[in-house]
């Protein structure tokens, strides 16, 4: 708007229509400034240390906006009576001055607001660190539950602040680093819970302590990296020196070589030779690797030798051309430049082929997770020798995957993908030993439920990273083949035939980054509710109870929907999400039926409340089913439907978090001898008849095979009875 005002054409005469248009622009600027300043003043009132500076900047901005509105006001202009055209116009110099003042003051407001945001993130990080220190020192389970609940709330606040910051970052490299650090924090929060519980349950177990210490250490490093990105600094004043990749080295080398066409004197031959030496040193990562095939190794060595020869020829012609610019020499130089660049392209293609073929083979080979399955089985059996054998195999697998990440980093093609490769390498490097310590703990305490759960959590983190590597490999290939930026269309998962009618004409759609950011907060709330519900189901002594099983199934499905909001998990498209929401609602209706059957057997003051909540559950599930089945077209309408499905799923989960404790209390009253249950309840018999089907293929298909992650994160008031 300001540009429009400043760049208006200086014609001697202007029509009323032109002046009115300029007046509207001036008023629009003033209104926009007013809205902006109102937000700035609200921020100032909440942050007293910067209130004075912010208030001054806001006053300046408001004054400048009002000045612009006055200067563009048609009512203040002189209208000659004899001419319909305007002959006198607002002083343009005053508008320019007001515009400069406005931009200056708005910039001040933005900078001050940014300082406040950074301070909020640092303060939030400090809270998390302080609570982590308390968590490390707790010795009783009850104390741990209380502190972890506080820790969970603080982590959610930190996630919100850093998520907003990540979306605001313009530097793609910083954005990728922030995403990697936040992913570590989220996964480690779940690991911290199970690792700490294991340590509390088995305080004298050294492997349990090592396991827990590893999680705390990794979380501290991730928190530190977030602050480095936010404040644009490094700890101890050190500079970040990322190792150069072969791709970036070749790109820079080719730019220098091709620059010789324009200027023969802008760099020395020593510079070019050094650049090539660095690139060829990095190719040794491939030629020295035990996992590079003999054929690839030979080709890389051959191309490296050829690159040296081509550069020698180029330098020779280049030096001659510097002394004598003849037509023949310039043609020879052009040929030498083309041959050198072609050789570098072939080298780039060869290392890409070596890295991606190795990655594809390794990911395919390890897709069955046989070593992890064996560790779980031998751990439960308490077979220490077998656990030791499989930990060696896992260590070998870890080395292979770490090497794969290092080679992929060289051919990733972009800095964000390079950072993702480095993050993946760190994850395998750290998670491998953590799985081993968790498996050793389980082998020492084979009957420990929490030790088993802890191993499951670390194994799932490993499996998740392997799945992420498949997506990363596709992205790297897309960059290499020039497909970067295209929207990838994912095929929907197979569905039972009864749903096909609704989906026949619909294309699978995946949320883009902006849509994921919009829905992130709702997803986090859903994540927390799955934690709460899982902690409630853990309180039940009879884990085979029908109510518990329905609750666990719904928690599992809700968790998969949360993963969808992050672009992760098995639900790849919006149609997958809608289908999952339908199944979730169906499971909720089944749970309501079980609750009605249960209520028929009780005589207790809370029975009316139970029936009321069960009816609410039925109503909410019907609403969710209607929303999930509704047909929509267009990107905006699809996103609105996604938002509605997740919102209604969250509401159902909130209700379940109230229902399950109520049912658990009624069962406990019965066990305490209060006689709130009639003898031989048929709902129990019904559970026995239907319970055997709880793990049938049909049921597994309904939840897309997603196993519930027990006690994911935070807001916990669980296991108080223990």
Automatic annotation (TrEMBL):
<dbReference type="Pfam" id="PF01044">
    <property type="entry name" value="Vinculin"/>
</dbReference>
<dbReference type="GO" id="GO:0007155">
    <property type="term" value="P:cell adhesion"/>
</dbReference>
<protein>
    <recommendedName>
        <fullName>Alpha-catulin</fullName>
    </recommendedName>
</protein>
<dbReference type="InterPro" id="IPR030045">
    <property type="entry name" value="CTNNAL1"/>
</dbReference>
<dbReference type="GO" id="GO:0005737">
    <property type="term" value="C:cytoplasm"/>
</dbReference>
<dbReference type="GO" id="GO:0007266">
    <property type="term" value="P:Rho protein signal transduction"/>
</dbReference>
<keyword id="KW-0963">Cytoplasm</keyword>
<comment type="similarity">
    <text>Belongs to the vinculin/alpha-catenin family.</text>
</comment>
<dbReference type="InterPro" id="IPR036723">
    <property type="entry name" value="Alpha-catenin/vinculin-like_sf"/>
</dbReference>
<dbReference type="GO" id="GO:0051015">
    <property type="term" value="F:actin filament binding"/>
</dbReference>
<dbReference type="InterPro" id="IPR006077">
    <property type="entry name" value="Vinculin/catenin"/>
</dbReference>
């Amino acid at each position: 708007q300001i540009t429009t005002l400043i760049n208006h054409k200086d014609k001697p005469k202007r029509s009323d229509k032109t002046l009115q248009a300029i007046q509207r622009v001036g008023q629009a600027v003033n209104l926009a400034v007013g809205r902006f300043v109102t937000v700035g003043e609200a921020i100032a009132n909440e942050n007293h240390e910067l209130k004075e500076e912010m208030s001054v900047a806001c006053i300046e901005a408001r004054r400048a906006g009002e000045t612009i509105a006055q200067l563009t006001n048609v009512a203040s202009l002189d209208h000659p009576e004899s001419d319909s055209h305007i002959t006198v116009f607002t002083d343009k110099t005053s508008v320019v001055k007001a515009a400069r003042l406005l931009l200056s003051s708005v910039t001040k407001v933005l900078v001050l607001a940014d300082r406040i945001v950074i301070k909020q993130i640092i303060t939030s990080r400090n809270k998390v660190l302080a609570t982590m220190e308390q968590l490390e020192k707790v010795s009783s389970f009850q104390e741990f539950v209380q502190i972890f609940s506080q820790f969970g709330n603080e982590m959610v606040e930190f996630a919100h602040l850093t998520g907003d910051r990540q979306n605001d970052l313009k530097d793609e490299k910083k954005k990728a680093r922030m995403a990697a650090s936040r992913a570590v924090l989220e996964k480690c929060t779940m690991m911290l819970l199970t690792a700490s519980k294991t340590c509390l349950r088995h305080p004298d177990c050294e492997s349990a302590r090592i396991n827990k210490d590893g999680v705390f250490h990794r979380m501290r490093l991730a928190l530190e990296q977030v602050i480095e990105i936010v404040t644009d600094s490094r700890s101890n004043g050190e500079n970040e020196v990322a190792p150069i990749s072969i791709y970036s080295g070749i790109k820079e080398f080719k730019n220098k070589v091709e620059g010789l066409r324009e200027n023969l004197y802008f760099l020395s031959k020593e510079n070019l030779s050094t650049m090539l030496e660095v690139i060829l040193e990095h190719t040794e990562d491939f030629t020295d690797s035990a996992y590079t095939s003999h054929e690839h190794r030979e080709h890389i060595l051959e191309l490296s030798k050829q690159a040296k020869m081509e550069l020698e020829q180029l330098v020779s012609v280049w030096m001659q051309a510097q002394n004598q610019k003849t037509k023949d020499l310039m043609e020879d130089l052009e040929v030498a430049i083309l041959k050198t660049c072609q050789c570098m392209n072939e080298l780039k293609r060869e290392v890409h082929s070596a890295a991606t073929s190795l990655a594809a083979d390794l990911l395919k080979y390890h897709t069955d997770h046989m070593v992890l399955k064996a560790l779980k089985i031998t751990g439960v059996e308490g077979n220490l020798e077998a656990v030791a054998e499989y930990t060696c195999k896992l260590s070998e697998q870890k080395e292979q995957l770490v090497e794969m990440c290092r080679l992929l980093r060289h051919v990733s093609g972009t800095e964000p993908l390079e950072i993702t490769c480095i993050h993946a390498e760190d994850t395998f490097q750290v998670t491998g030993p953590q799985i081993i310590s968790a498996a050793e703990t389980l082998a020492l305490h084979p009957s420990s439920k929490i030790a088993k759960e802890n191993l499951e959590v670390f194994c799932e983190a490993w499996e998740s990273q392997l799945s992420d590597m498949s997506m990363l490999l596709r992205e790297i290939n897309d960059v290499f083949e020039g497909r970067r930026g295209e929207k990838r269309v994912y095929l929907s998962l197979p569905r039972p035939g009864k749903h096909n009618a609704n989906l026949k004409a619909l294309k699978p759609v995946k949320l883009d980054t902006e849509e994921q950011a919009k829905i992130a907060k709702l997803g986090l709330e859903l994540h927390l509710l799955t934690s709460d519900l899982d902690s409630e189901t853990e309180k039940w002594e009879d884990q085979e109870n029908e109510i518990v099983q329905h609750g666990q199934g719904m928690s599992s499905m809700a968790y998969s929907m949360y993963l969808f909001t992050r672009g992760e998990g098995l639900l790849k498209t919006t149609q997958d999400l809608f289908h999952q929401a339908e199944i979730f609602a169906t499971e909720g209706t089944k749970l309501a039926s079980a609750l009605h059957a249960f209520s028929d057997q009780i005589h207790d003051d809370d029975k009316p409340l139970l029936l009321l909540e069960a009816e609410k559950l039925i109503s909410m599930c019907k609403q969710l089913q209607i929303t999930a089945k509704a047909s929509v077209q267009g990107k905006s309408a699809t996103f609105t439907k996604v938002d509605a499905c997740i919102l209604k799923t969250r509401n159902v989960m909130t209700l379940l978090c109230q229902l399950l404790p109520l049912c658990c209390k009624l069962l406990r009253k019965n066990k305490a001898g209060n006689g709130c249950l009639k003898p031989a309840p048929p709902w129990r018999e019904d559970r026995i008849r239907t319970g055997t089907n709880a793990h049938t293929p049909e049921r597994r298909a309904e939840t897309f095979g997603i196993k519930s992650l027990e006690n994911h994160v935070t807001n916990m008031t669980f296991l108080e009875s223990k």
